[in-house]
From TrEMBL, chain A:
GO molecular function, one term: 2 iron, 2 sulfur cluster binding
PROSITE patterns reported in the protein's UniProt record: 2FE2S_FER_1, 2FE2S_FER_2, TAT
Keyword annotations from UniProtKB, A to Z: 2Fe-2S, Iron, Iron-sulfur, Metal-binding, Oxidoreductase
Pfam families: Fer2, Fer2_2
Gene3D superfamilies: 3.10.20.30, [2Fe-2S]-binding domain (1.10.150.120)
Residues annotated as domain 2Fe-2S ferredoxin-type: 53-129
Protein's recorded name: 2Fe-2S iron-sulfur cluster-binding protein
Automatic annotation (TrEMBL), chain B:
Spans through the membrane: none
UniProt source species: Pedobacter agri
Signal peptide: none
Alphabetical list of SUPFAM superfamilies matching this protein: CO dehydrogenase molybdoprotein N-domain-like, Molybdenum cofactor-binding domain
Name of this chain's protein: Xanthine dehydrogenase family protein molybdopterin-binding subunit
Keywords: Molybdenum, Oxidoreductase
Length: 207, 708
């Protein structure tokens, strides 16, 4: 993001930069060939090469090796690159909780985390919660207590709810509500969500 | 059919997809060569674009194209200058701040976002006004006339009544803010074949709009919208940003995905319009209402008109011989509003139901007793009997559940430490609609039933309701039934709005099932089988892999004979902190009087959700504008407050659950709107009961409680 901003300040596009760059000689291209390459958008491919950062992370017990632009959020990486679209975008500002995932076991708003900040980390998304065909107890409890309507905030709610139980914040309905207040549900399923968490925290539901 | 086990027949049929992340919303479809669109929006409120420089944006990495009024592709319906609706990219005029003026398309979302920041725009500014309250004052000065006035009996009879009240109520702009961001994926292919993945409450409506704008045959357009992440009314029209994306796809001959930002959700996809209302009520000393006057001003935009039923309820909800109403819309330089859950009725009910409470207080009567005394026997507006109305029973049930007997008629009587407690009640009412829909049923020899209709599910549980109707009629378990929706190629159905889906589409499901049942009975008889034979055996015996039927269903003459409404009674107990002015809703009891309950679990959730929305409307929600610049200043979830989990107490829901004998074969009426209509008044009435302070301007924030 930073370098892009600077570019615009200088009024130079990246293509112009590449046309002038001494890097071009370093990769043994004559200037005229370089200009032609720029016109053919080969410069795009060079740009990608220099702008992307290698990334290694584990999502739902599967290792992914790739290269991403540093400005890509974990949320957009999951949704647009890995096509794990269970994690939702609701605000992109860490205000709604729809993008909640677990990073090394802790709940995190994936829209507030750049993908590259998660190098080497273990991510769990809603797609990785069930054990094969067997639902996680929280997923089963959400169905039983109808803890959703449209379903859009649901993956985030469930990831948050699992963390809420693991954190031990389930001593009362009020405590659950407090610790679930980072996840907005516009359909208004809150009491049902609390019912689901109460049941799971008491170990009362088996998937 | 996918594996889908319902542990409880009343569980949501698509719940398994929603809890596993497998439910696919519009933005989640993978298309080969997909590109990403990002909007450039106006930074002035009114005027004209004088230049739009896209050179830098076009040179930025990954950018495919920038489309604006300078280079838009042909949209024949937009060729003619002027008129309504707003014609995106076919004008250089600016009507509101944040108006989309260009779409930048690139090969990644990040690149499109960056490139959009490089578009340079200059404007010729004009004077504007975004202040609705100011506009109302100006309109009054000019004495503009509104819609024709409704009148029965003597006009303004309240003025000469034994006891009268007159009060003015203010509602701010509310923004729908479903959790899913709005947008669309558009894929315009050669030969003018268009596929879109939309966030819409009506796939047929979206299909029709695109066909109309681009003047291409309707059958060329395929609209997919299986899962919709909430709408609350904002997805009832195809917004300019959607047309812009279709234009972009047409222009570059590639699929384009646009997902707008949360900030943009405030400006370009509608809102509940602000309103200023005056209510006058007159009554005899014994509590008989003798006059109701309801006058309302509602917000609209300067470039498109928007109206809704703000003053409807005053015309029939109470027994009263003298009623007059007036509704006038007043334009401001903001994006055009759209129906938001409970639409105009929710706006009107805040005023009317607050005023009813004010009158009860003026009479020194229990508001419940006052309401019951003035409960109408018939609809005086239409001079017809109600098809089904059990309000008195609903009042009784709710009063008992909330503990109304603890309530003191004298405000400020219930105090516990620094908290003051109060009780409030209100009524909600909405037309029990029934439209026309078609459903196709395919009954298969493998024991399954597939039902298809181009309806939607924005959250209430359309598929679940339809499955339960079919399951009951045909005796097939729910997990053997699949209800397909959100696909414009299916038999036509209206948009999901006005609480009409269950009544409208459910009736067609009913007719399909009745027809399938009789076909099976005939086949059984023809093949000498017992009339009660299982349909699988009957189909097999007749060597039929499946039978199909399509039925169109609509209301008949009964709607001319009866006045049909759904009702809700909301009881609220609040506590108000005497030092900070904070209002906490302590307990909620909502009673639905909406005919038979077809799907008990989802129906309850809908009532709960309406109450939560009502808490937001009453205590939290207000879209605030800096009128110097015409911009929203709280256009995000940190500053625009919606209820969070900790704001919501225990909610009890009760249903009268008696079939309406006239509405439809199920006897079921819609509930989406009544779940919210009137709720905000119950909170305001409870705050008055707790504190003696009458707050007539929503939301009821601590500053108003302390100042009140």
């Amino acid at each position: 993001m930073q370098s892009s901003d600077q570019e615009s300040n200088h009024g130079d596009s990246r293509r112009d930069f590449l046309k002038k760059s001494s890097l071009i000689t370093a990769i043994a291209l004559t200037p005229s060939v370089a200009v032609k390459a720029a016109e053919n958008q080969a410069d795009e491919r060079f740009a990608e090469l220099f702008e992307k950062i290698p990334l290694n992370l584990t999502v739902n017990n599967k290792n992914y090796k790739s290269a991403v632009e540093p400005r890509v959020t974990l949320l957009d990486y999951l949704r647009e690159e890995l096509h794990l679209t269970g994690t939702k975008k609701g605000c992109d500002h860490g205000q709604c909780g729809a993008c909640t995932v677990h990073v090394d076991g802790e709940r995190v708003n994936s829209c507030l985390s750049l993908a590259v900040m998660n190098e080497g980390k273990k991510i769990t998304t809603i797609e990785g919660l069930a054990n094969g065909e067997e639902l996680h107890p929280m997923q089963a409890a959400f169905i039983k207590h109808d803890g959703f309507q449209c379903g859009y905030c649901t993956p985030g709610q469930i990831m948050s709810a699992v963390a809420c139980v693991n954190e031990g914040h389930t001593n009362s309905r009020a405590e659950i509500s407090e610790y679930m207040s980072g996840n907005i549900c516009r359909c208004g399923a809150y009491p049902n969500i609390v019912d689901a968490i109460v049941e799971v925290s008491k170990g009362g539901i088996k998937a | 059919m996918e594996k889908r086990v319902l542990k409880d027949a009343n569980d949501r049929v698509d719940g398994i997809y929603k809890v596993t992340g497998k439910a696919k919303y519009f933005a989640e479809y993978e298309l080969p060569g997909l590109t990403y669109g990002v909007l450039v929006t106006s930074t002035i409120t009114k005027g004209k674009i004088t230049s739009l420089d896209t050179k830098a944006a076009e040179k930025a990495p990954g950018v495919v194209s920038v489309i604006s009024h300078l280079n838009k592709p042909s949209a024949p319906a937009y060729e003619q200058e002027g008129g309504s609706p707003f014609k995106i990219f076919y004008t250089d005029k600016i009507f509101f701040n944040g108006q989309p003026i260009a779409i930048v398309v690139a090969n990644t979302f990040e690149r499109a976002t960056y490139a959009a920041s490089l578009v340079k725009v200059t404007y010729a500014k004009e004077d504007f006004n975004t202040d609705f309250e100011k506009a109302v004052t100006d309109v009054k000065a000019k004495k503009l006339q509104g819609q024709p006035e409704y009148k029965r009996g003597v006009e303004n009879a309240y003025k000469t009544a034994e006891v009268k009240i007159e009060a003015k109520y203010h509602l701010p702009i509310e923004t729908h803010n479903p959790m899913e961001l709005h947008g669309i994926i558009a894929d315009w292919r050669p030969n003018n074949q268009v596929t879109v993945y939309a966030k819409t409450q009506g796939v047929k409506a979206t299909q029709g709009t695109i066909a109309n704008v681009f003047k291409i045959p309707i059958e060329n357009i395929q609209v997919n919208s299986e899962f919709v992440g909430g709408g609350f009314g904002m997805a009832l029209r195809t917004w300019p940003l959607e047309i812009a994306t279709v234009m972009a796809s047409k222009h570059i001959a590639k699929p384009v995905k646009l997902v707008i930002t949360r900030m943009q959700m405030f400006t370009m996809v509608g809102n509940r319009p602000a309103a200023v209302q005056t209510i006058g009520l007159g009554a005899n000393k014994d509590g008989t209402l003798t006059g109701i006057t309801h006058r309302a001003f509602g917000e609209t935009s300067a470039y498109e008109n928007f109206t809704e039923g703000v003053v409807n309820m005053a015309k029939f909800m109470y027994q009263c011989d003298n009623v007059n109403t007036q509704y006038t819309v007043v334009p401001v330089d903001l994006g055009v509003p759209i129906w938001m859950r409970g639409p105009g009725e929710a706006t009107g009910a805040f005023a009317l139901e607050s005023a009813i409470d004010e009158m009860a207080h003026a009479l020194d009567m229990d508001p419940l007793e006052f309401r019951i005394k003035n409960d109408p026997e018939k609809d005086q507006q239409r001079n017809k009997p109600f098809s089904d109305k059990n309000i008195k029973e609903a009042y009784r049930v709710g009063a008992q559940k909330i503990g109304w007997n603890e309530r003191k008629n004298k405000p400020g009587s219930l105090i516990d430490g620094q908290w003051k407690y109060g009780f409030g009640v209100s009524i909600g009412v909405f037309n029990a609609n029934r439209g026309r829909a078609s459903v196709k049923g395919i009954l298969k020899a493998d024991g399954t039933l597939v039902l298809q209709s181009a309806t939607s599910d924005i959250g209430p549980g359309t598929g679940t309701g339809m499955t339960l109707i079919a399951s009951k009629l045909l005796g097939i378990p729910g997990d053997k039934i699949k209800f397909e929706l959100g696909d414009s190629s299916l038999p036509p159905a209206p948009s999901q709005g006005g609480s009409a889906t269950l009544s409208t589409v459910g009736s067609a499901v009913n007719d399909v099932c009745v027809s399938l049942k009789s076909t099976i009975a005939e086949l059984a008889a023809n093949s000498n089988m017992d009339a009660t034979s299982n349909f699988v055996d009957v189909l097999k015996k007749n060597n039929l892999p499946q039978i199909e039927v399509t039925k169109q269903s609509q209301a008949g003459k009964e709607r001319e004979d009866y006045s049909m409404y759904s009702f809700s009674i909301h009881f609220v107990k609040v506590k108000v902190h005497s030092l900070t002015g904070v209002v906490k809703v302590d307990k909620i009891v909502s009673v639905g009087d909406s005919g038979s309950i077809v799907s008990p679990k989802t129906a309850r959730s809908q009532m709960v959700g309406g109450a939560v929305g009502g808490v937001g409307m009453a205590l939290h929600e207000e879209s605030i504008i800096d009128h110097r610049y015409g911009r929203y200043i709280n256009n995000n979830f940190a500053d625009y407050h919606v209820p969070v989990n900790a704001d919501i107490p225990e909610i009890e829901v009760h249903f009268i659950n008696k079939p309406d004998p006239y509405i439809n074969p199920m006897g079921a009426k819609g509930m989406g709107e009544i779940a919210l209509i009137g709720f905000s008044a119950a909170v305001a009435n409870a705050v008055f009961n707790a504190t003696g302070k009458r707050i007539r301007t929503l939301p009821i924030t601590p500053d108003k409680v302390l100042a009140g």
